[in-house]
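The data are quoted verbatim for reference:
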Amino acid sequence: MVASGGVIPFLMPEQRNQEFMQALPGFRDFLPHDCAVRNYIFARWREVTRRYGFVEWDGPVLESTELYKKKSGAEIVDQLFNFTDKGEREVALRPELTPTLARVIAAHEREFKKPLKWFSIGRFFRHEKQQRGRLREHFQLNCDIVGETSIAADAELIALAIDLLRGFGFSDDDFVVRVSSRDAWLSFVLERLAPGQNTSSVNDAQFRRLLDILDKIERQNEKDTNAQLREFNASVNDVWAWAEKTRRILEDPSHQEWLGRPGTTLSNLHQLLHQQIIPRGLKNSVEVDFSVVRGLAYYTGIVFEVFSRKRKLRAIAGGGRYDNLIGQLSDGGTQMPAAGFAMGDVVLGELIRDTLAAREQMQSAIATQGKIDIYIVVAKEERRPDALAQIQKLRENGYRVDYPLAPAKVGKQFQTAEDLGASLALLYGDEWPQVKVKNLATREESLIAHQALLDSVAKFFNISASA
């Protein structure tokens, strides 16, 4: 940093240390509790996605900058942590996983049976303004189904997103999946500009202009929006009236004839609701909401976003169908349909903290996971070698065991055992060659010959597990 006049400001050593000893803006240190929260989130993600038959994969954290430009345009560079590496390559820390997935699928798709059901948990980076629910680095769950055109794939992903949130202790009162469709707004354009034509008659640039208007419709002055909508022979009132009429028709199971009109595939959305979502008992978790337009220029069909019912946070998850991306990134070399979604840990963590049931479930799980099985109390230092020998055997048999690394008073050692949540305390002292075994829950004590200790401990934990 150079001050005005070209003078380099002088920093005291303690000032420099304060700057260097802090995490960079938008990045996090994970202290033990933070790591426990992160591990809890990861464990739930893995548990639920595997129930759906997804398998885990991952890609590199560093990719060619060109890969992201090819997917999102040159403007994406402003959001990247990018640089020239020592091989003179333009590279970037990954801001998302979908371009990497498309690259990997294009290179390896012949090695796998279709459809692919893959998930990944990874770290991602975006050089963006920090705000609640958004940092410059975060962890993200990505779930994708590749090689399947059926609406069942879209429904499977929406059901998975719902079950993931239920797995964290949320109910239908806490979140909602807002479902929209690119085809809905294509249908709107056709009604206004080319009645009776098919979707191919819609100019792509024209459609993107509509999406841009719709994306800003709730933030922009209505007069300005109406001026922009004149190109589509419409007004703000026309937009909302059309969206409400279409939503009612889609939610009515009897309106099949309207949905099958030439040039539209809104029947997909109707089938999603009435043949996939409602039979699963997920109706109360899903709403048709055509205000979901962000990303429709990229997605090719149904899209969805998951939000808190209180609307205090950014989207918890979002995704949709992107049938053209793999072909686009492979220059037409591999054409494969695909759909997927992503869920980030930052917004999810905020929602967990804001929701009592989810927060209590997480705290209980973390407390349980953090407990040890056995604490060794060394009452006589001459018994420490004997204790260490049995500590090693206990750990080799899978028990979580801790002990005092330095001499300490017996009372303090028992307090440590309580603090660590141990079930048993084993005391090595004057009783040797017997070991005093204390059940820390019932306070019951017994003396066990050290040769029989492993069998006794195994019996205790088996009984506890089956109780």
In short: Confidence is low (pLDDT under 50) at residues 1-9.
